[in-house]
Amino acid sequence: MQQQHDGVGGADRDVTWMRRALELAARGRRPDPNPRVGCVLVSAAGELVAEGWHRGAGTPHAEVDALAQAGERARGATAYVTLEPCNHTGRTQPCAQALLSAGVTRVVHAQSDPNPRAAGGADVLRSHGVDVTSGVLEQEAIDLNATWTHLVTTGRPWVTWKLASTLDGRSAAADGTSQWITGPVARDDVHAQRARCGAVIIGTGTALTDDPRLTARRADGTLFEDQPLRVVVGERDLRPGARVLDDSAPTWHLRTRDPKEVLARLADEEIHHVWLEGGPTMAAAFLAAGLVDEVVAYVAPVFLGRGRPSVGDLGITTIADALRLEPTDITVLGTDVRITASLKEIH
């Protein structure tokens, strides 16, 4: 495992190795309670010593994973880590101490740890004479763990509202039928997106009307390895035998209508990305409460003329008060279009 970057300046070398650490971090599980982190150990001669990444809660952190492979070769090495080494004892020992014990003499990290329980590793390393460089490819590292960072800094999960709509803004026909507004390519994409989230939320109305499974499935019907927590919100009872209650994924039934209470419960479970699939009433409740961060709209080239709207009453009566979003991605999926847009602020 020899790799060297001859003739590359210090700053460029740091960027090169940090990019590799980010590639490793991206292998981690998106829905995991912990951030995705990668670590690369490089010798004083510029040779790759070892690589590691965090594979999920309860497994070794990226630094410890790399150090275990390096053994004595870690002494005198530089560690490139996508997140500031932690200074917290939880299921594992502090990574800052592990790096010190291994004899690492320089640490380069991208994102500073926003979690006050784990922050401070850089200062500990500096106090023991380790050369620490911070902020290399910081924005890339923040983007990699955007939803986790959001939970840590705001105290609530990042909420993505998913909707499927006709061109005239209908989510169901006048008789209530809605399967299928969009085509198979768009529906497969929805399942792939679900698998990246920690929880998917619907209301009791959707559960009773559509009887969804809410699992993340591949095109052939098999389940993804990661399944979101299924959350049904509302006071009405679910029907015995409802598909959302099967054993393919865990399910909560939260008997409340308060979006803040729902997100607080999920935050307690360290769920940092929520996929909101409820109907127009639930969507309006989350929007009105300022609790939607992003919208993923699957728009089909279809007209219904009548039927259920995509979102309920938001109290907007004039165009000047319209809720305007900032598009971040537009992708054609088969015959449909996926529009991703962020909500900077709810007015």
UniProtKB/TrEMBL annotation:
Keyword field: Hydrolase, Metal-binding, Multifunctional enzyme, NADP, Oxidoreductase, Riboflavin biosynthesis, Zinc
TM regions (residue ranges): none
This protein's name: Riboflavin biosynthesis protein RibD
Domain CMP/dCMP-type deaminase: 12-123
Cofactor binding mode and count: Binds 1 zinc ion.
Entry binding sites for Zn(2+): H61, C86, C95
Cofactor: Zn(2+)
Function according to Swiss-Prot or TrEMBL: Converts 2,5-diamino-6-(ribosylamino)-4(3h)-pyrimidinone 5'-phosphate into 5-amino-6-(ribosylamino)-2,4(1h,3h)-pyrimidinedione 5'-phosphate.
Pathway: Cofactor biosynthesis; riboflavin biosynthesis; 5-amino-6-(D-ribitylamino)uracil from GTP: step 3/4; Cofactor biosynthesis; riboflavin biosynthesis; 5-amino-6-(D-ribitylamino)uracil from GTP: step 2/4
BP terms from Gene Ontology: riboflavin biosynthetic process
GO molecular function: 5-amino-6-(5-phosphoribosylamino)uracil reductase activity; diaminohydroxyphosphoribosylaminopyrimidine deaminase activity; zinc ion binding
